Amino acid sequence: MTAYVQRNQPAGVPPLALTGERTLPDVPEENYWFRRHLVVYRWIGERCRGKRIVDMACGEGYGAAVLAAGAAEVVGVDANPEAFEHARLRYHAPNLRFERALVEQFDDGAPFDAIVFLQTIEHVEDPSGLLARFRSLLAPGGVVYVTTPNRLTLAPPGAERSDNPWHVREYTPEEFAALIRPEFESVELRGLFHARKLRAHELAIKAGWDRVHPALGLTRRFYERFVPAIDERDFALRERPLDRALDLLAVCRP
User: Fold this and answer.
1) What is the pLDDT of the chain when averaged over all its residues?
2) Is the alpha carbon torsion for 15, 17, 20, 25 positive or negative?
3) 9: in domain
4) Burial 49-87 (b: 16+ CB within 10 A, else e)
5) CB of 31 within 8 A of CB of 23?
6) Tally of domains within the chain
7) What is d(CA 64, CA 55) in angstroms, rounded to the nearest whole number?
8) What is the pLDDT of residues 116-158, one digit of tens each?
C-alpha cells in the first residue's frame, strides 16, 4: 500500500501522513478530498466574519486557518497529538490558537458564536449527546455547522455503510435530519455537489469513460494531472436534491 505524506512543509513543521481518518493539504493525490472539505470551510468562513469560533476536530489545522481569515477569534481543537503539534507549528495568526483536547471535553469557559464540526460526526459513538453539548457552548444567536458524507453516494447501493474503518455510522439525508433536529429549533440542510470539471467528469463516467481510459492506457497520465487541478469551484453547495449530494451540511440554531 502506497504511503502518502505531505510535501513541502515549512521548516520545523513535521509533515503528516494520510491515514484515511482525515484529509490533508499538500498531498497531490488527496487533492479531491481536501478541496471537497475546503469549499465548506470557506462557505462557513464567509458567514462567520467577526465571530468567535471553535473548529472541533480540526485535524491538520487548515480549516481553522481559513476561518481565522475573517473571524474575531478561532480555536482549533483536536485530540490527536501529531495533528495538534503540526497545526500549532504551521498556522499562525493573532486570532488563532490550537488546543489539544477531546471534543467531548473542551470548554474554555466562554461561549462561542459558532461551532464547526466537519466530517466527524460519523466517527462519534454518542452523536446526540455531543450535539447537546455543542448547543450548551453557544452564545445567544450562535450557530453549529455540521457536515457528514451522504451514505447514499458513499456506500454501495443498499449497504448500511461504506468500507471506511474509521466510521461508526453513516447517514442518509433523512437519518441526518432525524439526528440533528431534536437538538435544535432551526436546522437548514444543504448538500455538496460536483460542479464544473468534476461534473463534466461525472457525465463522462456515465458515458463510458471508465472503459475508455484503461483501454487506451491513459489512466495514470490523465489522473496525475486531473486530480491536482481540482479546486473549490469544482464543488457547489445547494439545497437539493439531497439524496444525490456528496456531503450533507446542517446549519443548526437553538
Assistant:
1) 95
2) positive
3) no
4) eebbbbbbbbbbbbbbbbbbebbebbbbbbebeebbebb
5) no
6) 1
7) 6
8) 999 999 999 999 999 999 999 999 999 999 999 999 998 898 8
pTM of the predicted model over 0.85: yes
Q: Which three cell numbers stand for residue 166?
A: 474509521
pLDDT band at 2 (very low <50, low <70, confident <90, very high): low
Strands (E), the chain: 52-56, 73-78, 96-100, 112-118, 138-149, 186-194, 235-238, 247-253
176-223: pLDDT as tens digits: 999 999 999 999 999 999 999 999 999 999 999 999 999 999 999 999
Contact 237, 39 (CB under 8 A): yes
- CATH code, domain carrying 42: 3.40.50.150
Full domain range(s) for residue 51: 28-194+236-253
The single residue listed with the C-alpha cell 486570532 is 95
Residue 5 lies in a domain: no
CA distance 22 to 33: 9
